[in-house]
Amino acid sequence: MRMIALAVALLLLAFAGAATVAQVQAPFRPPVAFSDTPQPPPIPPEVTDDRRVRRNYPEQPPVIPHAIRDYEINLNTNRCLTCHSRAYNAQVGAPMISITHYIDRQAQVLGAVAPRRFVCTTCHVQQTTADPPVSNRFVDFDTLISGGEERKP
């Protein structure tokens, strides 16, 4: 009987510890009661100036500098490709998607966008005016290799 009571006490202690850890590890969620329905923060405005943004490191996917709110991307259509594919980019003046998007998993060059690269918003995000949720000391690659600013641990 004593062992069962000890096991139950340890279990309760473990659950209480897990709940405390979950609260500590989720700093972006405000403390609300289970029955409350908190208001979500407003969606920040989108940047729609169509200016390319400098990338911070090699192979960084470029951000999307225009509105994409109602763009349709599904199995049969991809609105991004109406401007950024090889067939249309020269007519529209949009940058062509990288040739890497035409290479499949077996390193075969395809005539159309590879299926694993078809959903653009998997890697590319729309630029917004949102402030970062946490501060950071990020140093872009070029500054880092030129020694312009030291990265602090």
Describe the structure.
- This protein is mostly helical.
- Helix content is 25%, strand content 0%.
- The protein is built from 4 helices and no strands.
- The radius of gyration is 24 Å and the shape is elongated.
- The model has no long low-confidence stretch (mean pLDDT 83).
Question: Main β-sheet, in a few words?
Answer: none
Unreliable parts: none
Tell me, briefly, the overall form.
elongated
What gyration radius follows from the Cα positions, in whole Å? 24 Å
Share of β-strand residues: under 5%
The topology string of helices and strands comes to: HHHH
Mean pLDDT: 83
Which percent bin holds the helix content?
Answer: 10-25%
What structural category do the secondary elements indicate?
Answer: mainly alpha
Give the strand tally: 0
Tally of contiguous helical segments: 4
Distance between the termini: 52 Å
Secondary structure: elements and pairs:
Blueprint: H1 2-25, H2 81-84, H3 89-92, H4 141-146
Task: Briefly summarize what is shown.
By secondary structure, this protein is mainly alpha-helical.
List keywords for this structure.
153 residues; mainly alpha; 4 helices; 25% helix; elongated
